[in-house]
Amino acid sequence: MSHQPTKLRRHIARKWHRWLGLVAAVPILWLAISGIMLNHAQRLGLNDRMVTSGWILQHYNQLPEGEPYAFEVGDRLITGWGNELFLDEESIPLEGELVGAVAHKGRLLIATPDKIGVFDGADELLLELDNLSLPGTPVQALEAVDDKLHLKIADQTFVLSEDFFSADQVSAELVAIEPRELSPEEKDSLTEAIRTRRGMPLWRVITDAHSGRLFGWPGWVVTDLSAVFLIILTLLGLRLFPKRKS
Amino acid sequence: MMSLLLAGGSAFAGPKVHQKPSDFIKSSLGAIPTTHAITLTATQQRQVRAILGKNYKTKAIRYWARNGKSVFILEEIGKTEAITTGVVVKNRKIETVKVLVYRESHGWEVARSAFTNQFQGTSLKSNGQISRSPRNIAGATLSVRALTKLARLALFLDSQK
Description:
The structure holds 2 protein chains of 2 kinds.
Chain A: H1 3-39, H2 41-44, E1 50-51, H3 54-60, E2 69-73, E3 76-81, E4 84-87, E5 90-95, E6 100-104, E7 107-111, E8 116-119, E9 125-129, E10 139-145, E11 148-153, E12 156-160, E13 167-170, E14 180-181, H4 184-197, E15 200-201, H5 202-211, H6 216-240
Antiparallel strand pairs in A: 1-15, 2-3, 2-14, 3-4, 4-5, 6-7, 7-8, 8-9, 10-11, 11-12, 12-13
Chain B: H1 2-6, E1 16-17, H2 21-29, E2 36-39, H3 42-52, E3 60-66, E4 69-77, E5 82-90, E6 93-102, H4 113-116, H5 141-159
């Protein structure tokens, strides 16, 4: 008779262990597999692979904040949006507020307050000029005047040398050209390009799926519940571990 | 199993500026001399690709030289963020490696002088490898690799001046 309560408790523990295990099996398997993947991200190449799926990119909302504005250089459109810069509809490896853009001897120079990016004819970044090579920062304006590159820094005007590495101060005052707003069609087209061309690193997506954040609050609730279930399953398993008395 | 649940969770500390690049050049050369640049030819770009596993972010790489020393301010991605590193080369050997700006959330240990001092006196072997590889740091493997690549790149660029 004294064994009856123990037998009943073991029966209840086994029942809970079975059903909790069933409910938590899929999320726990996912946590285990994604955890192993993240621990071997480098070997699996997760850092290099990009996810370009539309719904994933939409979920990450990669669009910059604020209103885009642009400088036209010939038939090229250089756009600043938030802290990001775009050459036509391609993102360029330069960040900051767009303060000017000019074409000069087959090259395209794009200026932010901290840097000037020099792009070659293939739109590749040839050179980055910062306070180590410029007469100072922040750059306020960049223009081509009489085939020479003029810079405005701290309300003073400088003419850049042909190799871009030295500058002479001149007395002429440089009036900054104001950028223009993008038309609704241009903005829509750029928005679409950002959404479809920008990838997210696979490790980032797996990390967020692992934590549940990728799926919003239901995701992290499921992840938290799975962890709690795992704790309960472990305790129930320990409770069931001792051999049944014959 | 619980460690698996916790994998990937870390707080991002943000960029840490250990030294401004301009201050690094001044402290290494006494002043900031005129900028020079090596514009990579197609052959040199191939060699740079062999070192980094990809193209450098710019086709022309700047350096500053004075009294037989050259300073390179280079960047390489550790895991996801660029590590800005200053390298001083003299007589084809590394004199100083210093992490100037560290932006990754993990692996900041590579910025310690105990690690970067390992590069002192190293040179480039004929096979393009560094003469003495630094010891790895557990948890900072990618940052260690990035700094080793930058040391090799600086030595390569110094040989191309």
